[in-house]
Structures are given as structure tokens and as C-alpha cells.
Amino acid sequence: MKLILENWRNYINEVSGKGLERYATLISREIVKALKDDIIKNAFTRQGEVNFRLGDEGMEFLEDLDWVRYIKINLEAGRYVYSDAKYEFILDATDEERKESDIIINIVLPANRRGSYEDSVFSELIPELKDSLRHELEHSSQPTDMLMNIQKQIPEGDVWKSIESAERYYTDEAEVKAHVVGIYKKAKTMKQPVDEVLDDFLTAVWQTGLNNGHSEEALEPLMKKVRELWRYYLMSRYPEAQIELEEQ
Questions:
Q1: Can you say whether residue 100 is alpha, beta or left, with left for phi > 0 and alpha for psi between -120 and 50 degrees?
Q2: 128-155 confidence digits (pLDDT tens)
Q3: Which of 113, 65, 61, 110 is nearest to 89 (CA)?
Q4: Contacting residues for 194 by C-beta, under 8 A, at least 6 apart
Q5: Could you tell me which residues come within 8 angstroms of residue 205 by beta carbon, excluding any fewer than 6 positions away?
Q6: In whole angstroms, what is the distance from residue 202 CA to residue 242 CA?
């Protein structure tokens, strides 16, 4: 019976995961479509920033996501292409309150001499966008008590306040799962080996730690622990992923 239940859980996780991957792709397409719209581009040219919400047309599938209400986009001009996101929910929310949760997407695009942006930026944006979306969709599927764990451990949200707080964040169950599925989605989009994409991400985390005043000596054991944990979770969630696990 225990084996049957475990196999059923694995099946459910696989099905829901594939569904969320598909939703990440669909939402990404709708965002890119909106960014190519003349109304959005003209507003960006005039103001250097645009805040908007994806409309209902083409987004009917959001009804399948019980704990996502709206997809909101904050677009601004910058020197490089960048995207991140946040799943906004009421702290300690009930299941009913979770229905009022939104995914906020922040996008930075470089402006050309006319003050607009070129369509060529989308080839760089889309992998980042799908990573961010898949990460936050994973959070949207997680129970409130799992999400609240890191909120309670780092209430100010300052991940790099100390090495200990960074370790709590990057080894937290909700964050391990969300980061890994986002990285996997990005690797598939870019058609690159997932372990390379994961290591590139962790290199950026390492650099962020250095920029926040932590030494290489302090960061080394943290990054080794995080890398090992993420790689093992990657293999357990995506057994078909091409990645070699290192011997202990």
C-alpha cells in the first residue's frame, strides 16, 4: 500500500509539473504578445516604464490555477535584458484567501535611440521569463504552510543579511523546488544542458554573496551544500535530465 501511495504521489507531481510548465509557456507568449503591441510600446517610449495586467482574452486557462488571480507586469527601461517575478499572497492565508494571489513580473528592456525596444530582445528575454514564471507557478501550487516557513525565518526578506540567512533561503524546501523547476524550464527553452544552466545560476548567486560583503571562504561551503542539494532534487524530479551526480 505504501508503494502504491508513493507511486501515486509521484504521478500527481509529474502531471501537475508538466501542466505548470505548459502554463509558463502560455503566459510567456501572452506577455511577449503584449510587449509587441503598439499601445504598450508607445507608452514605454513616452514614459520609460509601463505597468499593466494581462487581459482575460487568451488567459482563460488561469481558471485552472486555483491560487493565481492575475498576472501583472512592471516594464521599465534599463541597460540590459532582465526578468524576475514574485508570487504575492496574503501571509498565513486560508485556501480561500489564496485565490486572491497574483504573480508580479518585473521586466527590464534596453531602449533604442527612439526610446522604444527592438524585437530582437525577445530571444534573450523569453528564457529568463519562462524561468521566472515557472518558479512562481511552483510557489502558487505549494501549500501556505510551506511558503510561510521561509517568511518566518527571514521576515525582513534580506536573504544576504548573513551566511546563515542565505543558507536558510537557498535550502528551504519551497525555494529549492521553485528554483530547480525554473532552471529546468530555462534549460529546455535554451536547449542547453541543465547542469550548465544550474551552475551558471549558482555562479550568479555566488557573485551576489560577494557583492553583499561575504568572503569566498564563507561562501564556499554554502554554495557546495546548495549545489549538491539542488542537483539531487533535480534528478529526483526530472530523472530524464542529463546530469552526472558526483560521488561523495
A1: alpha
A2: 999 999 999 999 999 999 999 999 989 8
A3: 65
A4: 183, 184, 187, 188, 234, 238, 241, 242, 243
A5: 170, 223, 226
A6: 18
